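quick q for whoever's on today - can somebody do inverse folding on this one?? i tried earlier but teh output was garbage lol. tokens:
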């Protein structure tokens, strides 16, 4: 299959997932079909599941273009583009002891996140984590490149994304090479903010740089194994609230890699949950504030 056939097949798979990420988002289906995902993927990437030799397989476009294109349009598998902040190169063998530090998210998650973000034409959007530039290209397709600011902490990654965006022959968004935790005040206030890096705590700068009624979409670390995709509405005065809409898995924002106690991040303790079970199944919820709590 050629790339367009791969993209069409991938979109059909995404259509089968619960939630219908393309539903009510005609712009997103059109963008997914017209923006080349392959254009933004490096010629050498790592598959994120280890092989029998214990190493993460390196997929090389030059050596096996068909396998590479299959991987690019694998709906549920991200591709690793950087390991150990660039210390591990494609010439090295990547093992379980090596940390993934940059990737292109799987196609289904990219579409899922943009479905929830739902940016509108002309809105001012801030993206945290430029990565390959693919997500920025989809956003620019929707809101217009001059309305998009994208941030990347790694200069080499930012430079590659800049070149990939420029090679598409369309105006490039503003690309800021700095720590995304501080946001980008120079182009604030923002209508929408999307982060492709997981945080333990929503950075205050993000909240301060949003308009009233703005949307923040970001993965948030949880004590339950998976990260959670948080969809928040801002009040324009440094506060936001919302809900957790999906279980996801993302690499941490560099400045928030050091683990912090869950109690410091506002998560309830396990004794704060109660389980109800019956013939129709079971449910887990937080206990009411007046319910007695056991201590240990």
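ok took a stab at it. sequence:
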């Amino acid at each position: 299959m050629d790339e367009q056939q791969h993209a069409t097949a991938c979109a059909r798979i995404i259509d089968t997932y619960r939630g219908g990420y393309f539903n009510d988002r005609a712009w997103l289906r059109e963008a997914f079909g017209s923006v080349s995902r392959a254009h933004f993927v490096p010629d050498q990437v790592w598959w994120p599941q280890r092989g029998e030799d214990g190493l993460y397989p390196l997929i090389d476009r030059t050596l096996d273009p068909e396998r590479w294109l299959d991987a690019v349009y694998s709906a549920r598998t991200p591709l690793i583009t950087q390991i150990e902040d660039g210390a591990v190169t494609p010439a090295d063998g990547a093992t379980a002891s090596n940390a993934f530090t940059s990737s292109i998210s799987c196609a289904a998650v990219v579409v899922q996140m943009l479905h929830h973000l739902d940016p509108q034409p002309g809105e001012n959007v801030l993206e945290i984590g430029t990565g390959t530039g693919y997500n920025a290209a989809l956003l620019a397709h929707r809101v217009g490149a001059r309305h998009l600011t994208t941030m990347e902490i790694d200069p080499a990654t930012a430079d590659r994304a800049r070149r990939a965006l420029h090679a598409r022959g369309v105006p490039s968004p503003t690309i800021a090479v700095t720590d995304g935790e501080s946001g980008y005040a120079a182009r604030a206030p923002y209508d929408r903010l999307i982060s492709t890096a997981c945080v333990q705590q929503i950075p205050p700068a993000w909240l301060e740089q949003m308009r009233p009624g703005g949307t923040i979409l970001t993965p948030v670390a949880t004590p339950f194994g998976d990260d959670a995709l948080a969809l928040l509405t801002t009040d324009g005065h440094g506060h936001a609230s919302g809900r957790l809409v999906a279980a996801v898995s993302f690499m941490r924002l560099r400045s928030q890699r050091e683990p912090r106690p869950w109690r410091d991040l506002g998560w309830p303790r396990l004794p704060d949950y109660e389980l109800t079970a019956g013939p129709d199944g079971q449910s887990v919820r937080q206990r009411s504030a007046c319910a007695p709590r056991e201590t240990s």
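fwiw The chain has a mean pLDDT of 93. also The longest helix spans residues 3-15. so keep that in mind when u check it
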